Amino acid sequence: MKPRQTRPSRPGRSWPAMLAIALVLSLPSLPQAGQEITQTFELREGWNAVFTEVAPTEADPDVVFAGTPVTQALTYHPKNSPVQFIQDPGETPWEKHGWSRWTPPGTPEALFKSLFAIQANQPYLLYCTADHTLQLTGIPEFREQKWQPDAFNLVGFHVDQTAPPTFAQFFEGSRGHAVSHIYYLHNNRWLRVADPSGVNITSGQAYWIWCEGGSNHQGPMELGIPGTGDGLNFLAAVDELEIEVTNRSPNPLTFTLAPVGTLPVPLSLVKSAITEETVVTYEPFTAYSPEVSLEPGEKHKVRLAVRRKDVTADEVTGLLRICDDIGDCHYIKVRADKI
I want to staple 120 with a disulfide (CB 3.0 to 4.6 A). Which of 141, 187, 217, 238 is the partner? Predict the structure, then answer.
């Protein structure tokens, strides 16, 4: 089969039942401390479209897929030209620019392997010869979605596993996704989501989604993280850091920021009361939600301070998780030096 169109037709109004979606992501198992979680995929025989939230401890696909029925792994790294949407994943032109492929060691195709590491925040097409439960243990990484304009994008989403948003909720307010063209993988075929307002995003699943023009849409909750933007890093000279949350939806939005498991990094919530004199207080951080919902376009800042005297090792690490009331969720890495 030859690659199909690079621009989709308008979706119809009918919606096929999604009772047998090819991928289910279970709740991550949480360690007592540190930054690792375990992401679990229920793979089905045939093709599976998955989205990894973690950078595996062992990233080499030879190790990740050793002893599993996974016989192919494909991924796409966008370059300057748009990727063509392929309805049959078996016809994916992996030898084309931007595509990478892995097959097991010892197979003839392994000589041409171009996929050398499984990364966080990356979609993959996995072919299985039998049903299999795949677990990836590693560190989740925060990264902004880069949308390729006027093209299909192979993407996944950071959403709550039990109460995720619908596609319409996630993309509401985004001009580039005002007319949704969304495809999910089912029984080795990409099928269109005909009613984005009635279908929830599945955590850990990858989709083909059309982006009209340029877009930097990150969902209803846009995060601003200081420094390199991938976590809170309390270096020896840095005692306080700020997370900025912006409501990009057209409706009021609230959120909750909380530790994942036991947080080894001792943090305090910094509060400022502005009266005749600005009074700053420090309260032990357990969890935080704003007192009032954010209006559309409104920004809200959460300031955290490390209690350096309570740091028990030369370096301590942990995870925070922030979720809005729609079901958009992200992990935020935290580390602190004792000095």
Answer: 141
